[in-house]
Amino acid sequence: DSGVTQTPKHLITATGQRVTLRCSPRSGDLSVYWYQQSLDQGLQFLIQYYNGEERAKGNILERFSAQQFPDLHSELNLSSLELGDSALYFCASSPQDSPLHFGNGTRLTVT
Amino acid sequence: AQSVTQLDSQVPVFEEAPVELRCNYSSSVSVYLFWYVQYPNQGLQLLLKYLSGSTLVKGINGFEAEFNKSQTSFHLRKPSVHISDTAEYFCAVSELSGNTPLVFGKGTRLSVIA
Predict the structure, then answer these.
(1) How far apart are CA A83 and CA A49, in angstroms?
(2) Per the CB < 8 Å rule, is A104 touching B102?
(3) What is the Cβ-side half-sphere exposure of residue B1, based on CA atoms within 13 angstroms?
(4) Contact criterion met (CB < 8 Å) for B107 and A105
(5) Alpha-carbon distance A15 to A5, whole Å?
(6) Would the CB atoms of A99 and B46 count as touching at under 8 Å?
(7) C-alpha distance from A106 to closest chain B C-alpha (Å)
């Protein structure tokens, strides 16, 4: 168990809808990262937060947004969903200068 | 910007045989290097990491990797694989400045055959 908790485990929704994925980092970890894993693109970095502030941005679409709350949990919001957004979404956390620890992911299916 | 190339998308190997999963990276700055393993329907688990010091790094489950700066490689090895090693393996790199996102390779599927 990595200590990173992601909910829900599975999500099935229709095109055009909006969903929120939630991540609770390991106790004490200030950094949260979001990754998207798909068969064709592999593991793509989306966005990083550090102690509530956006630290780095990767290949995140404008339809997607994230935030990190004062209790350090994070949410990834995906809107106007398309079939191509179907993927595994991982959250990872780390303390300063340490390897990332990943959650078990949320599998999103857009129909 | 960094990039990672995993040269083999699939590697089949017989049980108890040795295996090497290849990884090359590209970066204009010094980097940290990692190998992660992903078992079916699970998240990524850290196998080993190279931050500094000895270029031969030992990880969990009997895996080791060697950092070769001149060849910009970080190949993963195991002298004798088990059926339970069947999984997807990802090589990753991050900048030496720390607390920066990992850039992953596309993964290598290791299939161990009985």
Answers:
(1) 27
(2) no
(3) 6
(4) no
(5) 26
(6) yes
(7) 10
